[in-house]
């Protein structure tokens, strides 16, 4: 582990510069050491990635209650009955089978990021999965995963120098029999894959190979080297994984084993975390979201394939969160879901949906700043039948890297390459993020000043083309508090706005045009 | 010398073995002997010969097949296991032929899965189609698969109607089955086709449904979009024109439209090059470098077009090339679970129960091998998704995806499974039977079993795709076969055993040494490549 990991993680605390070069031991017992110990604890932060494979139907997961007539007409054969939707706000609700996640939301442990995708969506499962896992642009081909690059950066010279005293455990664990691109580093997969810690240890014992280190300088030689590397890794880590697994017990109740594959996987993750592994990143997968047909039951649309999948997600996530709480590990764990894309807004004739673009991402944990980030996607202003982007998925990665893992700028650059505006995902990081939070497409710019606002503020926007323009101000609950519209030619314009009637708090504003949009955050404070 | 020049040399045991490992599952000593000393043309004449279709799978408890039934039965889950075992049985017992490997190639290309189709009659019918065209015409097979009942179910083509087109099949037909997706050069434009082409192709394909009684497909003109369908510039703005009754009788509209769509797609050179790239990654190497693209893929694509999409000339050119026998190609593929398991059964000549007189055990035998392959992530009739096994497309790892900390320990334990043996159960009678591996009998097929150096030489040559170094062989001899013992100890024990082969104690002693060697050879990384 890098030295600086011990002294970061809580961005709010400023440390004297002189600390940088000294080890904790050299400083002796002092109040400073105690605070350092506290920070070390804070640095033990783990990330759990939940892949929803197949492309999750976002608008039947997080339902835009403020657009029910468009919703009902565009997906008449799969629309959920409004009165069964689990209301989060007047504008937004969850699928009826997501009872557990509703309670996580109510407890402030769930953030929903609306409209997440990337510019120029790709509708192929495989290419889009690669884009999400590698963190690339739509036209960029990366052979490493975003989490793999993070781990590569934090644990240099892996696997050669590992395990070692400061990192005796696997860097990442995937509960699966395959290895995901997400965890691929420059030289090697940064993770260990296993389905069951006990069976893993049993199988590995007695398969050790001594000698046989030479390889021919051919393609075959490269494969042999790789296989030996995986063999050695398995052998190295099987014991520590088994030990961690055996030393901790799940304290919450999960769905009975074998019924909900995601719950089974997360139960293992909870044990490994509670068992003391320092493993930074875990990855689990729930498949089956490619609901081209029969995603609902015709006689009761709250049932069917999609309902079962969301119930599994919700139950597994809720049990996991409860387990972490009882195991007293909940302040150390952050979870996020991702799926390669959302689905088409209009349903097809087979009570299903074809591949689409933007969809919500869930981020959960005790440290999460709960709530909804962004607004309901517009069901009427579509891009060729698909939802428009509100947030780039890499904004979420950026937020996790900076706010959760506390990466500095150079570490961050090694993972994502370029700057992405952060979102306020983690408690205590709100102000940093809110100051920065703007997003724009197609050369449109919007900002407001002064900000924070006491009474009056001016929205200044730049429009690169002639268009009808709509400015919407939305409160933290997702309600539009005001809407202004005008027709303008290309140019820069001001809209004066009186905020006297608005309560103090955070607001989002969004400038929509015929060919793109931009948004920003505004604080009303008196 | 161009990479696709014909391999000039007569096949040696080593080059024959390479050809057999890639075109079948493992190599038996008999097959190696059959090809050794032949020219590559003669060897390929044998491997590429058309085979007659095998009898369908049966329910071993009744001795009858169910695949021609008029309805799915409640036994279907069990039938699915029988069908899988049936195919693995064919892989293990096949004659000298590329047919099973090519059937697997198409199974991984035109993907369906039982869990989505949910009827073994459908899956069998699709399998029989892939098998029938295994060495046949790619374009004809594409047309057949487009209206195949299992495919109609798997990619929802049976729900694709004029009123509400369903894009699933239209997308994968282009992205994965024929032309392949190029770089996204602008929003929704994948170079070779566009998002609009996906939507348009979906309209062309409207109106097909499957019939669960006959397990056939039918075309319903009322559900078919009969208007003009215009494609993008990627397809030269081709228009599939509205058909008049005079030009096309109602019942033929669907097929006529489909043929016109496929004519358009197959006119593009990208289509023939795409399938050649897939064949290359399946049979030769994952690494399609710019040189390979230029000197192998492009000329193979031309061969395919020049031969009106017949697949045999392409296979002959590829597998008979100097490039295929390049030293860098030998051993560069990581064994698929089926290569590993079926290859083991064939290479070690493990006794297979008789399919006619021991049907129950025969099915149990292959059911267990199937289950082992499935745990290593290769389950036939149950591909992970429509793109097939990710080892053939997922950059940058490709074949290495088979190997991870979850699968590697099981692979490394295969030698234990082999030397311990396993138990078969006849489902009809509950009778059991042990499968054992007689390593001593196996060794006796090689010359000089009494000479420990020859034992190592012969077995390593038989077990591994590449040659081991003399240091590695020495290590096997001195640390694994005879740890802390002088080499003559083996000769003494062997000769002693041969004098009284029925002496159980002597047999056990020497067998333990040999089993340890075999287990170790199956544990090292070299065993995993082919």
Describe the structure.
The complex is a heterodimer of chains A (about 525) and B (about 525). Chain A is α/β, with parallel strands linked by helices and about 525 residues long. In chain A, about 30% of the residues lie in helices and about 20% in strands. Chain A has 13 helices and 20 strands. In chain A, strands 1, 5, 6, 7, 8, 9, 10, 11 and 12 form a 9-stranded mixed β-sheet that branches. In chain A, strands 13-20-19-16-17 form a 5-stranded antiparallel β-sheet. In chain A, helix 7 packs across helix 8 and helix 9 packs parallel to helix 10 (about 305-325). Chain B is mainly alpha-helical and about 525 residues long. Among the domains of chain B are: about 135-265, no CATH class; about 440-530, no CATH class. In chain B, about 50% of the residues lie in helices and about 5% in strands. Chain B has helices at about 15-25, 30-35, 40-45, 75-95, 100-110, 115, 120-130, 140-145, 150-155, 170-175, 195-205, 255-265, 270-285, 290-305, 310-320, 335-345, 360-375, 410, 415-420, 440-445, 450-465, 470-480, 490-500, 505-525, and strands at about 210, 215-220, 230, 240, 420-425, 430-435. In chain B, helix 8 (about 140-145) packs across helix 12. Chain B is globular and about 85 Å long. Chains A and B meet through helix 5, strand 7, helix 7 and helix 8 of A and helix 10, helix 18 and helix 22 of B.
How far apart the termini of chain B lie comes to 26 Å
Morphology of chain A: globular
In the CATH scheme, the class of the largest domain in chain A would be Alpha Beta
Structural class of chain B: mainly alpha
Number of strands of chain A: 20
**How far from one another are the termini of chain A?**
45 Å
Q: So how many helices of chain A?
A: 13
The portion of residues assigned to helices of chain B is: 40-55%
The gyration radius over C-alpha positions of chain B equals 26 Å
Order of helices and strands of chain B: HHHHHHHHHHHEEEEHHHHHHHHEEHHHHH
On the 0 to 100 scale, the average pLDDT of chain A is 85
Spatial order of strands in the largest sheet of chain B: 1-2
Largest sheet of chain B: 2 strands, antiparallel
């Amino acid at each position: 582990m890098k030295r600086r990991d011990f002294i970061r993680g809580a961005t709010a605390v400023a440390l004297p510069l002189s600390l940088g070069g000294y080890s904790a031991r050299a400083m002796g017992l002092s109040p400073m050491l105690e605070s350092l110990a506290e920070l070390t604890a804070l640095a033990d932060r783990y990330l759990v990635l939940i892949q929803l494979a197949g492309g999750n139907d976002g608008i039947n997961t997080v339902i835009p209650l403020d657009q029910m007539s468009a919703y009902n007409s565009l997906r008449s054969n799969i629309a959920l009955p409004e009165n069964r939707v689990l209301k989060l706000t007047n504008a937004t609700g969850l699928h009826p089978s997501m009872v557990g996640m509703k309670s996580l939301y109510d407890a402030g442990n769930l953030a929903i990021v609306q409209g997440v995708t990337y510019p120029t969506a790709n509708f192929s499962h495989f290419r889009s999965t690669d884009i999400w896992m590698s963190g690339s642009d739509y036209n960029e081909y990366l052979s490493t995963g975003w989490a793999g690059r993070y781990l590569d950066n934090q644990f240099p010279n892996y696997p050669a120098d590992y395990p070692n005293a400061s990192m005796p455990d696997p860097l990442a664990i995937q509960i699966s029999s395959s290895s995901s691109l997400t965890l691929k580093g420059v030289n090697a997969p940064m993770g260990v894959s296993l389905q069951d810690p006990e069976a893993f240890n049993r199988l590995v014992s007695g398969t050790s190979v001594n000698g046989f280190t030479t390889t021919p300088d051919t393609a075959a030689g490269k494969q042999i080297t790789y296989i030996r590397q995986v063999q050695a890794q398995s052998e190295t880590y099987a014991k520590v994984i088994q030990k961690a697994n055996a030393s901790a017990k799940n304290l919450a109740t999960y769905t009975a084993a074998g019924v909900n594959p995601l719950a089974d996987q997360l139960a293992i993750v909870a044990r490994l975390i509670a068992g003391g592994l320092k493993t930074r990143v875990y990855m689990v997968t729930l498949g089956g979201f490619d609901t081209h047909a029969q995603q609902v039951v015709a006689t009761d649309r709250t049932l069917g394939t999609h309902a079962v999948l969301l119930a599994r997600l919700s139950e597994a996530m809720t049990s996991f969160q409860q387990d972490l709480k009882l195991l007293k590990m909940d302040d150390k764990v952050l979870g996020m879901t991702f799926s390669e894309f959302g689905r088409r807004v209009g349903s097809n004739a087979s009570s299903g949906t074809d591949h689409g673009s933007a969809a919500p991402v869930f981020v959960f944990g005790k440290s999460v700043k709960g709530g909804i980030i962004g607004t309901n996607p517009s069901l009427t202003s579509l891009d060729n039948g698909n939802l428009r982007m509100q947030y780039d998925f890499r904004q979420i990665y950026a937020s996790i890297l900076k706010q959760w893992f506390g990466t500095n700028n150079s570490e961050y650059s090694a993972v994502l390459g370029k700057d992405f505006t952060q979102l306020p995902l983690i408690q205590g990081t709100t102000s940093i993020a809110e100051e920065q939070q703007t997003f724009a497409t197609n050369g449109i710019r919007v900002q407001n000043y002064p900000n924070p606002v006491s009474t009056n503020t001016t929205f200044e926007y730049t429009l690169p083309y002639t268009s009808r323009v709509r400015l919407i101000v939305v409160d933290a609950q997702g309600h539009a508090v005001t809407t202004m519209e005008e027709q303008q030619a290309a140019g820069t314009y001001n809209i004066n706005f009186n905020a006297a009637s608005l309560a103090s708090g955070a607001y989002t504003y969004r400038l929509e045009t015929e060919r793109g949009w931009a948004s920003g955050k505004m604080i009303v404070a008196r | 010398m161009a990479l696709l020049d014909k391999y000039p040399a007569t096949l040696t045991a080593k080059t024959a073995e390479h050809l057999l490992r890639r075109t079948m599952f493992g190599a038996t000593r008999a097959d190696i002997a059959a090809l050794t000393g032949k020219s590559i043309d003669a060897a390929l004449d044998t491997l590429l010969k058309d085979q007659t279709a095998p009898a369908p799978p049966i329910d071993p408890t009744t001795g009858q097949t169910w695949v021609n039934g008029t309805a799915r039965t409640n036994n279907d889950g069990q039938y699915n296991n029988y069908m899988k075992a049936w195919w693995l049985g064919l892989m293990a017992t096949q004659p000298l032929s590329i047919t099973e490997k090519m059937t697997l190639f198409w199974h991984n290309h035109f993907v369906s899965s039982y869990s989505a189709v949910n009827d073994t009659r459908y899956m069998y019918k699709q399998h029989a189609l892939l098998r029938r065209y295994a060495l046949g015409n790619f374009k004809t097979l594409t047309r057949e698969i487009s209206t195949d009942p299992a495919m109609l179910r798997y990619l929802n083509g049976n729900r694709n109607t004029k009123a509400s087109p369903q894009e699933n099949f239209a997308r994968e037909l282009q992205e994965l089955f024929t032309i392949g997706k190029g770089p996204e050069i602008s929003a929704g434009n994948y170079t070779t086709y566009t998002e609009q082409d996906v939507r348009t192709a979906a309209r062309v394909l409207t109106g097909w449904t499957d019939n669960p009684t006959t397990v056939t497909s039918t075309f319903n003109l009322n559900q078919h979009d009969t208007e003009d369908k215009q494609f993008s510039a990627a397809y030269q703005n081709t228009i599939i024109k509205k058909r008049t009754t005079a030009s096309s009788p109602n019942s033929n509209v669907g097929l006529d439209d489909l043929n016109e769509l496929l004519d358009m797609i197959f006119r593009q050179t990208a289509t023939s090059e795409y399938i050649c790239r897939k064949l290359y990654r399946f049979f030769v190497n994952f690494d399609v470098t710019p040189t390979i693209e230029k000197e192998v893929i492009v000329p193979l694509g031309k061969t395919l077009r020049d031969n009106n999409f017949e697949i045999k000339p392409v296979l002959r050119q590829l597998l008979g090339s100097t490039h295929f026998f390049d030293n860098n190609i030998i051993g560069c593929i990581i064994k698929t679970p089926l290569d590993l398991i079926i290859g083991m059964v064939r290479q070690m000549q493990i006794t297979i129960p008789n399919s006619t007189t021991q049907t129950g055990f025969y099915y149990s035998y292959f059911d267990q091998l199937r289950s082992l392959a499935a745990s290593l992530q290769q389950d036939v009739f149950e591909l992970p998704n429509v793109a097939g096994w990710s080892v053939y497309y997922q950059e940058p790892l490709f074949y290495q995806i088979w190997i991870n900390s979850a699968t590697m320990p099981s692979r490394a334990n295969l030698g234990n499974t082999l030397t311990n043996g396993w138990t078969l159960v006849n489902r009809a009678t509950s009778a059991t039977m042990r499968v054992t591996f007689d390593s001593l009998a196996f060794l006796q097929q090689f010359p000089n079993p009494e000479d420990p150096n020859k034992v190592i030489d012969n077995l390593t040559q038989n077990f591994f795709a590449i040659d081991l170094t003399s240091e590695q062989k020495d290590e096997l001899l001195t640390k694994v076969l005879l740890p802390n013992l002088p080499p003559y100890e083996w000769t003494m024990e062997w000769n002693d055993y041969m004098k009284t082969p029925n002496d159980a104690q002597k047999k056990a002693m020497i067998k333990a040494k040999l089993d340890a060697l075999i287990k170790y050879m199956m544990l090292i990384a070299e065993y995993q490549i082919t």
